[in-house]
Amino acid sequence: VQEPSKKEEDGLGQVVEEVARLVKFFRVPSFGVVLILNILSTFQFWVIGEYLTKLWKLIPNFSDAQARHLEMARDSGLLVGLVLGGCISDCLARRLGPTGRVLHGQIGSCIAGLVMLVGLHAIAPEDESFAAYVALLGSFSIFSSLAYAGTHCVVLTQVIAIGNRISVLATAWGLYLAGGLA
């Protein structure tokens, strides 16, 4: 049994082909709108979470171990929020149809904003309030990541053809990370 001959391409040719395919997607108006909304709606929560984690690590009363606990609260909250967000969004989509995912994204973003607003005004930067900082950062991370997994990724995959989802979602995730790191 002979294998069919494979067309060998150099690495640069594959990269150029992939970039050309992604450029076609950026010309589709609905894809551009969904991608920009995805980045802009999660950007503020990424920045706030990163900023507060770094700021609270600089508070003199917090030890290095406490600073690590803050990071663990943020990361654990993000993980729980991503899993929970997908489950809640699927449930709302089954009950309410296409508007269920949109409602889910709006509710998650509103609750995350309220948690942060209340938390920043209610917690004093004292050593006794460390548990409150952990609870605030953990709950904020949960609610801010709800919309990403349950709404943004799902809507983005509905706009993209099946054969191209991996490369487009990888690009979207890369842009999301680049926006968060900026």
Give the SSE map.
Blueprint: H1 11-26, H2 29-58, H3 64-96, H4 98-122, H5 130-159, H6 165-181
Key terms:
mainly alpha, 6 helices, globular, 182 residues
Task: Write a structural description.
With 182 residues, the protein is mainly α. It has 6 helices and no strands. It has one domain (28-181). It has helices spanning 11-26, 29-58, 64-96, 98-122, 130-159, 165-181. The longest helix has 33 residues, at 64-96. The chain crosses the membrane at residues 31-52, 105-124, 130-148. It comes from Alexandrium catenella. This is Major facilitator superfamily (MFS) profile domain-containing protein.
Poorly predicted ranges: none
Summed up, the helix count is 6
Rounded average pLDDT: 74
Biggest sheet details = none
Beta strand % = under 5%
InterPro entries: MFS_trans_sf
Transmembrane segments: 31-52, 105-124, 130-148
Protein name: Major facilitator superfamily (MFS) profile domain-containing protein
Keywords: Membrane, Transmembrane, Transmembrane helix
How would you summarize what this structure contains?
The chain has helices spanning 11-26, 29-58, 64-96, 98-122, 130-159, 165-181.
